[in-house]
């Protein structure tokens, strides 16, 4: 799912080029997601809905926030930084949110 959410962001972030959402990548991600769902469906009755929401909502937020930050970072630095440097930059930039959350 994380890979496909980044694919959804391509047309939004790159307005200068007419890029389309890669359907094959979305389809593969949906197959993987369906497999995960099928392996966990038997445990669905034992888990309260609040626990499910407390797990799924942060996961969905991160599935959008990381690809958005990564692609935006690539645009800002003009591909001058490697992957580790971009991740470090995003981590440092997110530290105020960590402090607010823990403070």
Set out the fold topology.
Blueprint: H1 2-13, H2 23-40, H3 49-76, H4 83-102
Helix pairs in contact: 1-3, 3-4
Describe the structure.
It comes from Gracilibacillus pellucidus. This protein is 76% helix and 0% strand. By secondary structure, it is an all-alpha fold. It has one domain (2-102). α1 (2-13) crosses α3 (49-76) and α3 crosses α4. The chain is flat, with a radius of gyration of 17 Å. The mean pLDDT is 81.
At a glance:
This is Multidrug resistance efflux transporter family protein. It comes from Gracilibacillus pellucidus. With 103 residues, the chain is mainly alpha-helical.
- Please work out how many helical segments DSSP would assign: 4
As a percent range, the share of strand residues is under 5%
Helix content: over 70%
Radius of gyration: 17 Å
User: Could you state the order of secondary-structure elements as H and E?
Assistant: HHHH
| End-to-end gap | 32 Å
Task: List its traits.
103 residues, 4 helices
């Amino acid at each position: 799912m994380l890979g496909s959410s980044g694919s959804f962001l391509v047309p939004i972030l790159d307005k200068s080029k007419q890029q389309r959402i890669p359907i094959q990548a979305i389809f593969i991600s949906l197959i993987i997601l369906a497999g995960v769902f099928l392996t966990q469906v038997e445990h669905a009755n034992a888990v309260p809905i609040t626990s499910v929401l407390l797990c799924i909502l942060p996961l969905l937020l991160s599935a959008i926030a990381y690809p958005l930050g990564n692609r935006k970072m690539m645009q800002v630095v003009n591909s001058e930084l490697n992957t580790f440097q971009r991740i470090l930059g995003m981590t440092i930039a997110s530290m105020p949110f960590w402090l607010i959350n823990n403070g």
